[in-house]
Design goal:
The complex is a heterodimer of chains A (about 800) and B (about 90). Chain A has 23 helices and 38 strands. Chain A has about 800 residues and is α/β, with parallel strands linked by helices. In chain B, the strands form two sheets. Chain B has a two-stranded antiparallel sheet. A two-stranded antiparallel sheet of chain B has the order 2-3. Classes of the chains: A alpha/beta (about 800), B alpha+beta (about 90).
Chain lengths: ~800, ~90
């Protein structure tokens, strides 16, 4: 801490020499912003010694230019006005560092996602806005201070949540690299969905035959510790140093089990086997399936007669030669210390019983594609015979109905589930292989055979005379006597209605996010998109990284995907986690709080709001101290401190106030000051830009790491400077990347509203918005809404607000 | 595995479970009710009749529910219950 202060003083004495680079980004920015004009404007700003515009600042040439200028013009601050800092800040920071400039002396103005792309048709306003954004960046950069990053050690162990094919692949890759891996699986066996599928497309390999060797590798690998029947209960810590609690449910069978199955033979309890989607039965003591890893049997305590330690029935114990059955087993909590986490929790299948028109659950011969997989599987309940469940006969005509639960806003989910088209094509060929005379209809919306070898398989199916009919049946009706099914709908290619009688209908169900993904989301502070799948840090450049450092995604947890893609992504995630662990250390951003002990009154408010318990109060010395490694860097302590004794590095009070002042310099009464949190709402505004969602150009965005950083005095300052409206935006409650810091935001905004109302100000002028990184439209429409509000704000109201918050101008 | 189960197991028709033959020696019962309380399948209930010892012995609700765990035999303090397996004509196939 002492060191930091010295360097600060040193730098303060130096006059800022700022270089501004306005990027055209081809026509991405230059198309709607007059970049030359912006550069010219920037040169008039205080401390700016160099200002230029160039086509691609991020190109090698552009970066070289910055490095050269830093040396030649003795620049000690750099501003690049281009895209989102979430995209290229690391690039330019690196360039600055290469030229010997501390990377914390760099600032970006986001004139692409937040300006040119969202104001495509209003060049004048867009240019004005770009000028403002540059002005804000220049004002901030002049006040920036050099900082050194703290290094954090990375524990060379990984946790993988989910033991499907993605989790298995990631575990094996990491374990083979030499890292210790903990694989946690909720079910009694690893294998996941792939273990239940009969064949894989497009090669028609036997699914379990290719998976089982991998499963047994996991079981035997010296670097993998398998925790089945277990769930992650708590995750604390941060990148490189996660403390994880895993709840291990008892199996009531010890490792001595030889999986002979004698116990199951004598068990009097019979229940449907979940692995076979209930199409086969199992006993109270059972092994989920033949290839299960671990092969150890387990007791389903919800069915077993021996409740609460009272052994009523001891048939299994008597049958077990190895005395492996122990009813006294208790759940245990396993504590793990890991450096990286891979989330491979997979997906659920859609429940078609919510669609009454298809009669699933009412008609015996309507089954799902997953039930079909079990029926066609030689090891399944019917020994590989596709049977009508009403009379156990092999059907002569079969219909597949596509997009059940996919691509429909009304009946299920709006997105395409990726795998069902090819799965149906594969299934139809399997039927043709066993019973070539079967008549097969496939009712579809579009056939998506986009992958390697997919089109060939589709052609094969057509050659095998599978009839593809475009247009989903609107209804399935059962013939009460024969239990045959009538499918009725419209063939949209031929523009005629059809009514087709089949022996069996297979609903090709889509994939949906896991019911408990919300729990995982909370545990790891992740985000999910509107479809419920986990959101990656960047859709193109960081597709397997979570926004939370040290967390990666693999498989269907991130989006529906087939086995090949899941395996690919798993290896990618393992590679990404491996990079961190190979280095063994990572630097954390220098955005921790700075304490001014002379101002501190030891009130302890900061200690209370810190989500990480990183602040401790010494009541005797009357001062607080900060554990930097534990600090997440939200800055909510700085917003809470009433005495200005705490501020956040790189987001100091004076820097943020300088931004507010810069943007309110001209036409403040037409402007909306928006505070956006780095992870959700800023990213959401970026998303609005990428999607070219147009909204009014009145808004000026100030980025903070967390909405919890937004101190009431920033809002007051904006109103005191005559701003028409203020937006405070952040992650949805419960989704905060800093555990719960945004609850503080809510409290502060509510307090502000009260204050405004008491002083006769319209509280609509201060808006609170929760928007996730995927909710660009939510952000854009909020801006549109606030625009209508500011249009109605009378000059007297502006003046009144100025007066009410007059005091805010005195600070600093 | 969270899928809802909508169809009955294919082998449900072939499943045979042991048939029990429950023997109550009613007059030996002192009406403690342990068998009623502890039977995991709730095979017994209190009857209306009064036995030789002047208490209500249990009565069998449904013999088919019995899974022959013999716990009633174990808990009965008066050795008043014993269960044997009914020899069915069919081979057991579990």
């Amino acid at each position: 801490m002492a060191e930091k202060k010295e360097s600060k003083a040193e730098l303060r004495s130096e006059e800022p020499r700022i270089g501004v680079y306005v990027c055209h980004c081809g026509l991405n920015i230059a198309g709607s912003v007059d970049c030359e004009e912006v550069a010219k404007f920037a040169s008039t700003l205080p401390h700016v010694v160099l200002s230029q515009d160039n086509r691609y600042t991020c190109s090698d040439q552009g970066q070289e230019g910055i490095k050269r200028d830093i040396k030649e013009h003795k620049l000690n601050r750099v501003v690049v006005a281009s895209c989102s800092p979430r995209l290229h800040e690391p690039t330019f920071r690196k360039a600055c560092e290469d030229a010997g400039l501390n990377k914390y002396l760099f600032e970006m103005a986001n004139i692409r996602e937040h300006c040119s792309w969202v104001h495509l048709y209003d060049k004048k306003s867009a240019t004005e806005k770009a000028e403002d954004l540059v002005k804000m960046a220049v004002a901030k950069v002049a006040l920036l201070e050099a900082a050194e990053e703290v290094e954090v050690r990375i524990e060379r162990k990984a946790l993988i949540i989910g033991g499907g094919v993605a989790g298995i692949q990631a575990a094996l890759d990491l374990a083979d690299t030499g890292y210790k891996v903990f694989l946690v699986e909720k079910e009694p066996s690893i294998g996941g969905m792939m273990a239940r599928i009969d064949k894989t497309f497009p090669t028609m390999d036997c699914s379990i035959c290719i998976l089982a060797p991998k499963m047994s590798d996991v079981g035997h690998h010296p670097n993998i510790e398998l925790l089945t029947n277990s769930e992650v209960a708590e995750v604390k810590g941060y990148i490189g140093n996660f403390h994880v609690k895993v709840l291990k449910k008892p199996r009531y069978v010890t490792k001595d089990c030889s999986a002979c199955g004698e116990c199951a033979k004598v068990c009097p309890i019979v229940a449907p086997n979940e692995f076979d989607v209930g199409l086969a039965s199992r006993h109270g003591i059972y092994s989920p399936f033949a290839q299960a890893v671990p092969a150890t049997y387990l007791v389903d305590m919800s069915l077993c007669l021996n409740k609460e330690g009272v052994v009523v029935c001891d048939k299994c114990m008597k049958a077990c030669e190895r005395n492996a059955i122990v009813f006294e087993m208790k759940p245990e909590t396993v504590n793990l210390e890991v450096g990286t986490i891979i989330v491979a929790t997979g997906a659920d299948v859609f429940d078609p019983s919510t669609l009454p028109n298809y009669g699933y659950g009412r008609y015996a011969n309507v089954i799902t594609s997953l039930e079909f997989e079990r029926l066609i599987n030689a090891g399944g309940p019917s020994g590989g015979h596709l049977l009508r469940l009403s009379d156990m006969q092999i059907p002569k005509t079969v219909a597949f109905v596509q997009c059940v639960g996919s691509r429909s806003d009304r009946n299920g989910r709006p997105y395409c589930s990726n795998v069902c088209c090819m799965n149906t094509i594969k299934d139809s060929l399997l039927i043709k292989e066993h019973w070539p005379d079967t008549e097969i209809y496939v009712f579809y919306v579009d056939i998506r055979a986009y992958g390697k070898g997919f089109e060939d398989l589709y052609k094969r199916a057509r050659k095998a005379r599978v009839k593809f009919i475009r247009g989903l049946p609107s209804e399935i009706k059962e013939d009460k006597r024969t239990h045959n099914l009538w499918l009725m709908g419209e063939n949209t290619l031929q523009k005629e209605l059809y009514k087709i009688n089949v022996d069996m209908a297979i609903l090709s169900v889509g994939l949906e996010s896991r019911k408990d993904s919300e729990v995982v989301q909370r545990l790891l502070t992740l985000s999910r998109n509107q479809d419920g799948f986990f959101l990656e840090a960047h859709p193109k450049l960081r597709p397997v990284d979570a926004a939370t450092g040290g967390v990666f995604f693999a498989g269907c947890a991130e989006s529906p995907k087939d086995i090949k893609d899941s395996v690919t992504q798993a290896s990618a995630a393992a590679g990404r986690a491996g990079i961190l662990m190979a280095k063994g250390k990572v630097t954390v951003e220098a955005i921790t709080p700075i304490v001014y002990p002379e101002k501190c009154k030891a009130c302890g408010l900061c200690v209370k709001v810190c989500p990480y318990n990183a602040i401790s109060l010494d009541t005797e010395l009357k001062r607080v101290s900060i554990v930097e490694a534990a600090c997440g860097g939200c800055g909510t302590c700085a917003a809470e401190c009433p005495f200005g004794a705490l501020t956040q590095s790189h987001f100091t009070d004076e820097q943020i106030i300088a931004q507010v002042d810069a943007l309110t310099e001209r036409d403040a009464d037409k402007k909306i000051v928006a505070f956006c949190c780095n992870w959700c709402s800023y990213a959401g505004a970026d998303f609005a830009g990428v999607s070219r969602m147009q909204y009014p150009p009145n808004v000026r965005i100030i980025r903070t790491m967390c909405s919890g950083r937004v101190a009431p005095k920033f809002v007051e300052r904006a109103f005191a400077r005559g701003a028409a409206a203020v937006m405070v935006t952040g992650c949805h409650l419960g989704d905060c990347h800093y555990i719960n810091a945004n609850y503080q935001t809510q409290k502060r905004v509510e307090r502000m509203w009260k204050k405004m109302e008491q002083n006769g100000l319209r509280k609509e002028r201060l808006q609170l918005l929760w928007a996730s990184a995927a909710e660009g439209e939510r952000f854009a429409s909020k801006v549109r809404e606030v625009k209508t509000i500011i249009d109605s704000v009378a000059p007297e109201e502006i003046e009144k607000a100025k007066k009410v918050f007059e005091k805010a101008l005195e600070d600093n | 595995m969270p899928e809802r189960i909508k169809h009955a197991p294919l082998d449900s028709r072939n499943l045979s479970h042991p048939r029990a033959e429950i023997h109550l020696i009613k007059d030996q019962c002192k009406g403690c009710g342990y068998c009623i309380e502890f039977c995991p399948k709730k095979v017994f209930e209190e009857s209306d009749e009064i036995n030789a010892r002047g208490v209500r012995p249990p009565r069998i609700v449904n013999e088919n529910k019995c899974i022959l765990c013999h716990f009633c035999t174990a808990v009965c303090p008066d050795f008043a219950i014993y269960v044997v397996e009914k020899q069915s004509d069919q081979e057991r196939k579990t």
